[in-house]
Design goal:
By secondary structure, the chain is of the alpha+beta class. The protein folds into 6 domains: 36-147, no CATH class; 156-217; 219-278, SH3 type barrels, CATH 2.30.30; 281-346, no CATH class; 354-537, no CATH class; 592-712, no CATH class. Helices cover 23% and strands 31% of the residues. Strands 11, 12, 13, 14, 15, 16 and 17 form a 7-stranded mixed sheet that branches. α10 crosses α11 (521-529) and α10 (475-495) runs antiparallel to α15. The longest helix is centred in the N-terminal third of the chain and has 26 residues, at 2-27. The protein is globular.
């Protein structure tokens, strides 16, 4: 009897287990599916951004108020509104969103895109309520993106990346934010914590991860990272944009030797298996920066290695990018391994004491020269490769494109007395042959020779201010100009605009005119009395523009496509006592304003008001392809009334001219006369003085005879400080700070050494 019971027990237990498994399989849903939330998120992001979904959901949500904080609500709301989810089939509830997508729902969604896509679902009476298989869903989604023409472009694409960490690794981190080798990525609804320190493949829309498609490797190499601290069993390293604590598999001997170093970390399963330190460092002035190499004084050109990083080590530690390495600076130490640059370590702030200027040819036509002849005004040394030659006052030297002396390295010419200057006899500036303070560098490029003048910033300004504003102007106006010029130059130094040629700016109107007019005592004084002063906004150096003459009102940075919120201090203001702003965007209001001569700081200047007359035939030479010009209409005006969109109508079509620069260029003609309000007549202008214009059509005997009278005001782009406005304000007793406060709203004047 006992044996039968035991035998029954052995037989009964397996049967019971099998029965329980069958019950579970029948009672529980098939988990081999994709949640509706995940599927609908991906679908919504095929045609909209995360922010667009958020805004649409805020305006109207299908979910009850208690559920509207769930991450998936915004995506599903968008699809409900477009009819891509049937609310009767898929209710707007948390349970529904967190459940599995069915064949019937996939069929409905596909049908909203195309019948071809719907046919791929394979809906039947037997499977309509069954979960749609994940592999089939993601294949269907790829086809959906192809139908919508968003597959594998910037909208929806596959990426391979390494996950450095998630918001859980960052104090006060943004929820659902992952930090990766491809930048920051969102991952709403996904679990990425288990993917940390792994190389994975993901499906991405914009910057939002939709699916982890493959886990490629659990072993990664973090190259050229900064080791902050080291203990026997743990390293603190700056990986990507995160400070991470990483366990070490084996005990570290002499951990203190590892701290404050650049290294490669070999990581497997979240543990550091190997550390390769990179201790070799070089330093010197940065002479040139290209995409693949940096030229460092004393070391020549060094290739930029893969995974090159820049770290700021002074003040608050920060990861920077290559743009923070500035031509002419010597504030970095460069880490080198295998003959390549691995990292740059910024040791201290760049003081921007010097500026590097590309000296253009006569007439400012080109930065390249066929021949350069230099005359030395003091003794000095010329360095050619590793060879030095001395020179004396009065000596000259000529370089020609293709010269053997320039085959390998730049030639550097340093006079003993840098203030005496070096005369460049091959070019003219005005009626003089210019001499340049500082030192000169000559380098061979494929297009010709480039000539770089490195000069102290304050000496540079002493040759900019008189080139940009008459030296006879009031002292306070000249001081305002000096501060503007210094601020502009500082921004250009940091911008590295000519880094490929080892310079910051050129000496033309493209930047600031330099050394085109001789220095004078008045402009030198203006520079000296404002030494080191910059215009700042909320502690940062402001973006500064200036121009010749206003029409009584300035405009703002939006005329060049900038957002007003980016440069709130560049707002349009009335150039008169008390400032203020007038609404001149209406056509009739502006026309009345520009045809009158309202009192303002500049109302006595000739260019305050002017008129021009231009024929349809003259316009047709520039605006082609639309037949005979028959009409002009200003369709849109920006702040201050400046022309923003001009409609040009012809007998064979129309064209839209956008932007103040294009409008001025299209309506300018060297044969047209420009009559200033004081009666002076100007000719030979290929561009109108400004785009603050109102246009009246004069009917002719035929369409070919049409003419236009242009009523205009001011000279220049109209953004920032009017130089003649500054002069008038100075004459009225205003200080240079009061002048700057009017034109740059909310700014302050600060010392250059206060800028971080």
């Amino acid at each position: 009897m006992k044996r039968k019971k035991i035998a029954g027990w052995f037989i009964g237990v397996p049967l019971t287990v099998i029965a329980l498994v069958m019950i579970i399989l029948l009672a529980e849903p098939d988990e081999d599916g994709v949640t509706r939330a995940a599927a609908f998120k991906a679908t919504a992001l095929s045609t909209a951004t995360v922010e667009e979904c958020r805004l649409e959901s805020r305006s109207r949500s299908e979910f009850p108020a208690a559920s509207q904080n769930q991450w998936y609500v915004k995506y599903m709301d968008v699809l409900y509104h477009r009819g891509w989810i049937d609310k009767d089939m898929t209710p707007a509830t948390e349970a529904s969103a967190e459940g599995l997508l069915t064949y019937r729902e996939a069929d409905w969604l596909a049908g909203q895109v195309s019948e071809t896509l719907k046919e791929q679902v394979g809906l039947s009476d037997k499977n309509k309520d069954r979960p749609y298989p994940p592999d089939e869903w993601w294949r269907l989604y790829e086809e959906l993106c192809r139908e919508l023409q968003v597959w594998q472009d910037d909208k929806v694409r596959r990426e391979t990346l390494v996950v450095y960490g998630t918001f859980e690794d960052v104090e006060d981190g943004t929820p659902w934010r992952a930090y990766t080798s491809q930048g920051n990525r969102g991952f709403e609804g996904l679990g990425l914590g288990s993917c940390r320190d792994q190389e994975i493949q993901v499906l991405v829309s914009g910057s939002e991860i939709l699916q982890v498609t493959d886990k490629i490797s659990k072993s990664v190499v973090y190259k050229n990272i900064w080791l902050m601290e080291a203990g026997e069993n743990e390293l603190t390293a700056y990986v990507g944009s995160l400070a991470r604590k990483l366990p070490v598999k084996s005990k570290i001997k002499a951990p203190q030797e590892m701290a404050a170093q650049v290294a490669d970390l070999y990581v497997t399963d979240g543990e550091v298996k190997k550390v390769v330190l990179k201790k070799e460092r070089v330093s010197g002035k940065v002479l040139e920066i290209r995409d693949d190499e940096i030229e460092i004084e004393g070391y020549g050109r060094l290739a930029i290695g893969e995974d090159f990083n820049v770290y700021r080590l002074y003040g608050e530690f920060r990861r920077q990018n290559l743009s923070s390495v500035v031509v002419g600076s010597d504030v970095q130490e460069f880490v080198v391994a295998d003959g390549q640059l691995c990292a740059a370590l910024t040791m201290r702030p760049f003081d921007a004491e010097t500026i590097r200027v590309l000296v253009m040819d006569t007439g400012f036509q080109s930065i390249f020269h066929e021949t350069v002849t230099l005359e030395f005004l003091s003794p000095g040394v010329m360095t050619i490769g590793d060879r030095e030659e001395t020179f004396q006052p009065g000596d000259t030297v000529t370089f020609r494109s293709g010269d053997e002396k320039l085959a390998k390295d730049r030639v550097v010419i340093k006079p003993t007395d840098e203030s005496a200057g070096i005369r460049v006899t091959a070019i003219k500036r005005g009626d003089q042959i210019p001499a340049y303070p500082g030192h000169m560098e000559i380098k061979q490029e494929s297009e010709g020779l480039v000539l770089v003048n490195e000069v102290y910033l304050e000496e540079y300004l002493k040759r900019v201010v008189p080139s940009e504003m008459p030296a006879s102007y009031e002292k306070e106006a000249l001081k305002a100009q000096a501060v503007c010029a210094r601020t502009y130059a500082w921004r250009q130094i940091m911008a590295n605009g000519y880094k490929n040629y080892g310079a910051h700016v050129d000496d033309s109107t493209k930047y600031q005119v330099y050394n085109n007019v001789a220095t004078s005592a008045s402009t030198d004084t203006a520079v000296n009395e404002t030494y080191g002063k910059l215009i700042t906004y909320e502690g940062k150096v402001a973006e500064i523009y200036y121009f010749s003459t206003s029409c009584g009102h300035t405009t703002d940075g939006t005329i060049w496509g900038a957002s007003q919120s980016d440069y709130p201090y560049l707002r349009g203001i009335a150039v008169k006592e008390g400032g203020g702003t007038m609404d001149l965007t209406n056509e009739e209001t502006f026309s009345q304003f520009i045809k009158s001569c309202p009192e303002g700081y500049e109302s006595e200047f000739g260019m305050y008001r002017w008129t021009a007359r231009i024929t349809g035939g003259q316009i047709q030479k520039k605006v082609t392809g639309i037949g005979t010009i028959v009409d002009l209409t200003m369709k849109e005006r920006s702040t201050g009334g400046i022309g923003k969109v001009l409609w040009v109508k012809g007998t064979a079509g129309s064209k839209e001219i956008t932007g103040e620069g294009q409008i001025r260029a299209m309506l300018g003609n060297t044969d047209a006369e420009i009559r200033q309000q004081n009666g002076n007549i100007l000719t030979g202008w290929d561009s109108l003085p400004s785009a603050f214009i109102s246009i009246e059509k004069e009917e002719g005997e035929s369409e070919e005879d049409v003419c236009f009278t242009i009523y205009g005001g001011g000279y220049g782009h109209g953004v920032g400080m009017s130089q003649n406005g500054a002069q008038a304000m100075a004459k009225a007793g205003k200080s240079y700070k009061q002048i700057l406060e009017l034109f740059y709203d909310g700014t302050e004047v600060a010392e250059i050494d206060e800028i971080s």
